Amino acid sequence: MSTETQPTSVEHTVKPVLAVEKLSVHAGDLTLVEDVSFAIGAGERVGLIGESGSGKSLTATSLMGLLPDGVHSEGSIRLDGVEHDLVGATQKQFSGLRGRRMAMVFQEPMTALNPTMRVGDQVAEVMLIHKTERSRADARTAAIRSLERVRLPDPEKIARAYPHQLSGGQRQRVVLAIALANGPELLLCDEPTTALDVTVQAHMLDLISTGIRERGSALLFITHDLAVVATICERVLVMYGGRIVESGTVREVFTNPRHPYTQGLIAASDLETDHAGGRLVTIPGSVPPAGSFPSGCVFRTRCDLATDQCAESPLWTGEPERGFACWNSGEHT
Amino acid sequence: MEPTRQDQRTRRRPLGPTFVVGAALVGLVVLFALISFVWTPYDPTRVDPTVRLVGPGAEHWLGTDKFGRDVFSQLLVGARTTLFVGFIAVGVAAVIGTPLGILAAMTRWRVLSELVMRGNDLLLAFPALLLAIMFGAVFGASTLTAMIAIGIATVPSFARLARSGTLQVMATEYITAARVAGRSTLAIAWRHVLPNIGAVVIVQASVSFAIAVLAEAALSYLGFGTVPPTPSWGRMLQESQQFIFDKPLLLLWPALAIAVAVLGFNLLGDGLRDLLDPRLEERR
Amino acid sequence: MSNSIRQLARRALILIASAAAASVLVFGFMSVLPGDPAEIALGVNATPDAVASLRAEFGTDRPLYVQYFDWADGLLRWDFGKSYVSETAVGPQIADRLAVTAWLVGAAILVALLIAIPLGTLSALRHRRFTGLVVSGLSQLGIAVPAFVMGIALIFVFAIKLGLVPSGGWTPPTEPGKFLSQLVLPALSLGLIQGAMLTRYVRSAILEVLREDYMRTARAKGASSMRTLFRHGLRNASIPVVTVLGLHMTTLLIGSVVIERVFVIPGLGSLLLDAVANRDLLVVQGVVMLLVIAALTINFVVDVLYVVLDPRLRGS
């Protein structure tokens, strides 16, 4: 059904930390993510943007092996230095990787921490699980150090606190401390600043980029906020309807978007005047519910340039690192 | 490929199997009770020493008890007793408990609200059985004391539910709007709060009915509920217990009847909850 | 910290106030009882002088409020007064019977928890699969059976048909073999039914917790599903379960009244029912009061457990 719409082998000068090929995610008969391929190099910072319902969170969740019951993935996900494919890996295999080789920061800091466990113990746990610290006492000391590294004031006191005693911003820093505690090669962030106050957002982004730089971790940053991507990422993947429709460096994609959807996104967000609140308001129509995107080009029902040809899935134009999937875009930039 | 999609949120919710089975079982009990008004094979209270402890057969479908009374007739009229006790008890509880809960949630005097809820907690320490035994000790046991005792003991569950439901409704914007518009508290309670918490009260009534049936059976078994000669499932068990070795069927029928009624009202309550609040159903 | 202590103190005050209010209610209610204990004790042919002197002996000639304070004051020292019928002290009787009921209820709670926690957890983890459905169905059926019917059924199967254990009676724990053989059926009757109810609560509490974001965070840390469940899930799930456990223990306590009748066990319940039959006012009053105080104490313990289990209730 889906032919070569995107190059399957991603060549990199350095061996990528993460290589995703032809990833698709299904729930029963529904296809939620289809034919997604990309690679992230060591220490590289990649943004994954798109409206809600575009499949970006599902993509990240399947990388972590945390898909809900009844949802499964196909294709291939390879993590550098890991023998087996992450698609089809057992939960036991995932347990050894999660929190150690790759870690994740979630969108909602208010509910992400266990309300009945002290914050310090929750940070220490990730080191005890992976035995990166030998004893409980060592892990506790290391936990306080981790809390200090995300610049929480009075880390000893924070470590003894329960989550409800901290603000949303503080809790998200704790979640980040947990994610970074074992120095993962890859950090996944799923809208980590969306639920935070605008004043706290910039600080959080700063902590994330400092954190990964210090540890040399690669970053996959999921957001619908273009301004955030521009701040923190080098490269960007644009996702719509469960597919990647365009990719490239932040500069290339933002200054010369090729896919009509990306063009709409950028026109709508107006980076110049409003740096923090990129909004997607001027693309006509709305995102169809998950799994009910049109066949062929997933964007054609909302696209001004759509032609009969768009009933077929568009081929990938360009390189894996810089390209787009649209039949009509070449002439319309 | 044009993917098909079923949106579970917009799809009209069919009556769940829980609801259907529950309604069928309750319907069976109601049917028994209704039939008993127009027809029973024998007078359920007629003592006939010539047919004591007869087994099931054409004459007496389910046999007779130690007094020669027809078991099937007693079972039919027993359904009436059970429903009557349950109905009055749950009615008393809902009529007292619901307004108390609404009052506790809506009153501006914190002392009053606190008093109602503390009184409620105190009442929780007096379960139906204990109250009924106390009532029985003072006034003499009867169907009335059992119903009132079960009813009073069930008040707290309605009061709590009504209070939390009302607090939720009061937090919504249209209540604020109604208040700003100068509507009286009573009018708000009647026009806005009651219709909104009605659904959960009905669910609670069904579940409480099941508990009331259990309590009535236990009380009649102990001799603190329905008094002879009115047939009652609980007392049928007590009267037949001595024949457990020879005539276990005599115990099986009333036990089965009680179980059907309780199961029916419990399932009906669960089914209603699923119908009224889809969010809850997903959780189960 | 001081906040928790203040909370505890508040709860303790509520307990004391509720117990006081309950004692007034119970005493007041029992005073409505028609008939004069002295007249009843002496029968219809008694002379007015004899009745008056017995009244003085019972203390029922004093104003009600004096009688109340006398009674309430005695309660604090486990002095429930002297029975008008048997003319013996009520306190020691109640103490003997309480020990029996405590064994029964304790064993029943143990049975209920041993059923509810593993089965509730299992059916939550398998909630869309066969095991989950079977467990849900069984617990739904269990709830529909009154405990005393369960008792009769257990007697029928295990005492009469199989002859494994006695059908009733009671032996003190000083003879462990006989004690246990007589305890097992009544404890199962109460425990199985209560366990069936609790299973549903455990199940829904675990299901609720499994959806929580912090469970996903724990998985994202690399915790195995078992570690996630035990280290993060169970404690959080226990908070709603403890609420209903309190109510269930009260139900068990009162349910034991019926079960004691089924199995001919000389516990508090039998004492209460016999006392009602004999119109032994002070015994009824004493047992009812004791049961109510027990229920209030259970509520208090539940409130304290909340604060222990849920740090959010401790304030900051």
Mean pLDDT of chain A: 84
SS-derived structural category of chain C: mainly alpha
**Class by alpha and beta content of chain A:** alpha/beta
CATH class of the largest domain in chain C: Mainly Alpha
Strand content of chain C: under 5%
N-C termini distance of chain C: 8 Å
- Major sheet characteristics of chain A: 8 strands, mixed
How large is the count of helical segments of chain C?
12
- Secondary structure tally, helices of chain A: 10
Low-confidence stretches of chain C: none
Tell me the greatest interface.
Answer: B-C, 36 and 51 residues
* Low confidence ranges of chain A: 1-12
What is the helix fraction of residues of chain A, given as a range? 25-40%
Question: Keywords for this structure?
Answer:
heterotrimer; A: 333 residues; alpha/beta; 8-stranded mixed beta sheet; 3-stranded antiparallel beta sheet; 10 helices; 11 strands; B: 284 residues; disordered N terminus
Structure write-up:
Chain A is α/β, with parallel strands linked by helices and about 325 residues long. In chain A, the strands form 2 sheets. Chain A has an 8-stranded mixed beta sheet, with helices on both faces. Chain A has helices spanning about 55-65, 90-95, 120-130, 135-150, 155-160, 170-180, 200-215, 225-230, 250-255, 260-270, and strands spanning about 20-25, 30-40, 45-50, 70-80, 100-105, 185-190, 220-225, 235-240, 245-250, 315-320, 325. By secondary structure, chain B is mainly alpha-helical. Chain B is built from 10 helices and no strands. Chain B has helices at about 15-40, 70-105, 110-125, 130-140, 145-170, 175-180, 185-220, 235-240, 250-275, 280-284. The radius of gyration of chain B is 23 Å and the shape is elongated. Helices cover about 80% and strands about 0% of the residues of chain C. Chain C contains 12 helices and no strands. In chain C, helix 5 (about 90-125) packs antiparallel against helix 6 (about 130-145), helix 6 crosses helix 8 and helix 7 (about 145-160) packs across helix 10 (about 225-260). Chain C is flat. The termini of chain C are close together. Classes of the chains: A alpha/beta (about 325), B mainly alpha (about 280), C mainly alpha (about 325). Chains in contact: A-B, A-C, B-C. The interface of A and B includes residues 29 and 289 of A.
